[in-house]
Design a protein that fits this description.
Largest sheet: none
Strand content: under 5%
Distance between the termini: 55 Å
Radius of gyration: 15 Å
Shape: elongated
Number of helices: 5
Number of strands: 0
Helix content: over 70%
Structural class: mainly alpha
Amino acid sequence: MKRLSQKTETHAKLMGKMMDRCDVDLQRLAADRLGLTLASAVRTCARCRNADSCQGWLAATAGETKRQPPSFCPNAVLFDKMTRLEEETQDERLAMSSAGL
């Protein structure tokens, strides 16, 4: 049981760091589909066999933000989508602000 809990903790930490590195908004992810998207991402990460690659990528990109998720990440498409949605929302807010709305 200890091994399972260690793996779960390791993957949770890696996912959090990956989301930070890729500038994924956790609140937006948690709100999407009433939390189902986040739950799916957590399960996907927990089943991932690329933890060593993930740790290496995170170490190699330390101090960087707004990175494209690495292709080996099973959540890469989701993280990229969530980042683009956030950028579009910010662009819309800026346009509305500029228009005085």
